[in-house]
Amino acid sequence: MAVNFARGLDEKNPVYLDRSAAQAAGYRDVLTLPTFPIAMSTERVDLIFAMLKLLQLDAAKILHGSQKFIHHQPICVGDRLTGTKRLSALTDKKGGALTFVDTVLEYRDTDGALVCEDHCSLVHRNS
């Protein structure tokens, strides 16, 4: 999946495509692109809809506001990660016309070490 993700983005750096090149560069296996966690999070998009339902927000009125990734260590093909998502802020703006839903999805390795943080902001149009 990670290699296909890199190919789909026309990546040319061999550390994202070839195990030998990645290992020669000092990685355990093929390195994933920094934005690859977005592909991992879409495996459970149902959880986003469940969160919106709990917050009583209409999914049809959601816009993607922002996304950022903070990497604490490289993610390589074959790594086994566990993700835990939490609501970090719920803020009304523009006199209540918009609600910002900020979440953090933390990915940890099998030892429990933090590998990556996926910060996402969704915007709900309240009109």
Regarding CATH, which class of the largest domain?
Alpha Beta
Distance between the termini: 39 Å
Biggest sheet strand line-up = 1-4-3-2
Oligomer: single chain
> Count of helical segments?
4
How would you describe this structure to a colleague?
There is one protein chain. The chain is of the alpha+beta class and 127 residues long. It folds into two domains: 1-33, no CATH class; 36-125, Hotdog Thioesterase (Thiol Ester Dehydrase, Chain A). Helix content is 22%, strand content 35%. It is built from four helices and four strands; from the N terminus they run ααααββββ. It has helices at 2-8, 19-24, 37-41, 45-54, and strands spanning 62-71, 82-93, 98-108, 114-125. A four-stranded antiparallel beta sheet has the order 1-4-3-2. A hairpin with a 4-residue loop joins strand 2 (82-93) and strand 3. The longest helix has 10 residues, at 45-54. The model has no long low-confidence stretch (mean pLDDT 94).
Essential attributes:
about 130 residues, alpha+beta, 4-stranded antiparallel sheet, about 35% strand, elongated, 2 domains, Thiol Ester Dehydrase, Chain A
Q: Could you write a compact summary of the structure shown?
A:
With 127 residues, the protein is of the alpha+beta class. The chain has helices spanning 2-8, 19-24, 37-41, 45-54; strands at residues 62-71, 82-93, 98-108, 114-125. Strands 1-4-3-2 form a four-stranded antiparallel β-sheet.
Please outline the helices and strands:
Blueprint: H1 2-8, H2 19-24, H3 37-41, H4 45-54, E1 62-71, E2 82-93, E3 98-108, E4 114-125
Antiparallel strand pairs: 1-4, 2-3, 3-4
